[in-house]
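Reminder: ligand-aware prediction takes two inputs, not one.
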Amino acid sequence: MACNPAFRRILITGAAGNLGAYLREALADAAAVLRLSDRRPLAARAAHEEVAAGELADFAAVEAMMTGVDAVLHFGGIPEEDSWDNILAANIRGSYHIWEAARRAGVKRVIFASSNHAIGMYPRTQRLDTDAPPRPDTLYGLSKAFGEQLARYYFDKHGIEAVCLRIGSCFPEPRDERMLATWMSYADLARLCRRCLEAPVVDCTVVYGVSANARLWWDNSKVDFLGYRPEDSAEFYAEKVRAGGGRFTPPDPAALFHGGHFVPIGYTRQR
Ligand code: 15L
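Here is what comes back for the chain with D-galactaro-1,5-lactone:
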């Protein structure tokens, strides 16, 4: 049964990626039709699935995948630091294409996989709430900050609702000490996406995609209205993570800022 009757067809971009592939299964009942898109090969596996392959950098392809869509889970694009040309094509042009095609197709809501790397240059001594403006740590983080501004622009000017998920570290288990603060379980990601679809009104909202970790750096209290209630915690894995070793220590910038190991990439600042 569709979880929001306003959304009969939901497009998932990046549906062949780790998170997209998980959401495809976890949100199988979220709409009458899930349209799956990726640049990599995909095939429909169930009656409620359909496939619209294409490159995000190709506007005609994005327009075609948007036809008849009510809501979008935009998880496509490059998920880490890369060359400017690649980030420009997939993440910057690609996200612009998503919102512009969404506007033309009359899409009501976009749920955007932003990233903690949009705020990666904040010092770890600072706790952040959902009003914290971007301080990107990489070109990748910059592209996520651009996506958040696209969300703002298309909501203010065209009324397309948006939720920007500043996802922490979404993996089966936390892999290092930083992830004891930043980890999000797959199940909590599905819970969050479900709430982003179910909430009757979201306007244009930023939310941290993170589990109920004991060492949290990020505060979602201002977006409590979304009803996101994480059920998992990285603390369960704390002993295992500690035994695994491999932590960064100051003055390594990887240990000083929210963005962790993304921060030293191309870092040349002396003071
Ligand atoms: C991200 O945005 C990446 O997509 C993911 O691979 C992790 O590196 C994550 O951030 C993180 O910060 O742990």
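Helices lie at 18-26, 59-66, 84-105, 139-158, 179-182, 186-198, 238-244, 253-256. The chain has one domain: 9-262. We will return to this case in the review session.
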